[in-house]
Amino acid sequence: MEVVVTDANIFIDLCKTMAAEAFFSLPVKIHTTRYIIDELISVAPQMRQFIDENLLIIKDFGEDEYENLLTFSFENSDTNLSLPDCSALFYAMKNGFKLLTGDMKLRKRSEKYGVDVSGVLWVFDKISEYGVLSPEVLKEKLILLKKINKRLPFDEIDKRINKL
Questions:
Q1: Digitized pLDDT (tens) for each residue of the chain, 164 residues in all
Q2: What is the pTM of this model?
């Protein structure tokens, strides 16, 4: 089963489009780091449900790992990535997991390290592929996604909407 490490902005988009439950019903293991959750839980409290149901695995870094994470973060300070962003990249990179992010700086840095990286549209593609939501509902959520996240590639969203 594929494992993904998810950044905060993916969860936020999924919560705002009410597609988080569909994401967590996919046949993927969803991980994030303690730093992401600490940043996220105040803006997306519904994530607590997925933690309580053991659908979201939270990575806590031990002392040695934390030191390595700080070194990694320092080495990447030229990108202005936050510690939570670095924690997601570091965790994905060290374990060979896919990283899900909507942050362009994090995406570019991930690609530099050879990490398989995708965004929220990958999630919607998987929801479609596995038939988790009906095409009509999925279309509504993609239209809403365009309204709430102006940084996404609208042409790519429109392609998906037109296919549905």
A1: 899 999 999 999 999 999 999 999 999 999 999 999 998 888 778 888 999 999 999 999 999 899 999 999 988 888 888 999 999 999 999 999 999 999 999 999 999 999 999 999 999 999 999 999 999 999 999 999 999 999 999 999 999 999 98
A2: 0.93
What distance in Å separates the CA atoms of residue 144 and residue 47, rounded to the nearest whole number? 20
Q: Which residues of 56-92 are buried (b: 16+ CB within 10 A; e: fewer)?
A: beebebeeeeeeebeebbeebeebebbbbbbbbbbbb
- Cβ-contact 48, 40 below 8 angstroms: no
Fold entry, domain 2-121: Rossmann fold (3.40.50)
Closest by Cα among 7, 18, 41, 43 to 118? 7
Cβ-contact 100, 7 below 8 angstroms: yes
> What are the structural domain ranges in the chain?
2-121
d(CA 32, CA 138): 25
Asked if 40 and 68 count as a contact pair (C-beta separation under 8 A), the reply is no
Q: Taking a C-beta distance cutoff of 8 angstroms, is the pair 21, 49 a contact?
A: no
